[in-house]
Amino acid sequence: MKLSKQLVLPVFVMVVAGGAFASAQMKKPAAAKAKVMFLEPKNNATVTSPVHMKFGSSGITISPVPPGDLKETRPGMAHYHVGIDQACLPAGKNIVKGTPSWVHFGTGSTTIDMQLTPGPHKLTLQLGDDLHRTVDGLCQTINITVAP
User: How many helices (H) does the chain have, and how many strands (E)?
Assistant: First the structure.
């Protein structure tokens, strides 16, 4: 009987300590989710042509696409693509190079000054991996108006 009373206190301390540790683990902030955004222009802005665009991201590394005939991608690395009057493409979709509606930034650049016709335009910023496939959830669309 005396032995079981001696075990109660250490077992109680371990249970309390384990609960405190589990609680502390649950309070850790979740890892930041990667995102992509237009820094300039802002959504619903009225701008003049050439339109100055500046891109940003968090939680992912923007990097030039390596030269050569690539067979695989580098994890956690991507580059920008801008669609003019285009919607976000589904995850894993290949963004075809050389199309007039999508501009590739395979050098890792984060800005462009682009001539656009006067009127409303939808701008879509989408990240692609080294094989130019869209990255799930990393797309933003804004609307602008280009003044005459």
Answer: 1, 9
Tokens of 142: 């804004």
Residues 6+ positions from 13 with CB-CB distance below 8 Å: none
Q: In this structure, what token pair is assigned to residue 116?
A: 């656009």
Q: For residue 104, how many other CB atoms are within 10 A of its CB?
A: 18
pLDDT by residue (tens digit) across 73-114?
999 999 999 999 999 999 999 988 778 899 999 999 999 999
β-strand partners of 45: 144
In the block, residue with structure tokens 């080294």: 130
Which tens digit of pLDDT belongs to each residue from 32-67?
689 999 999 999 999 999 999 999 999 999 999 999
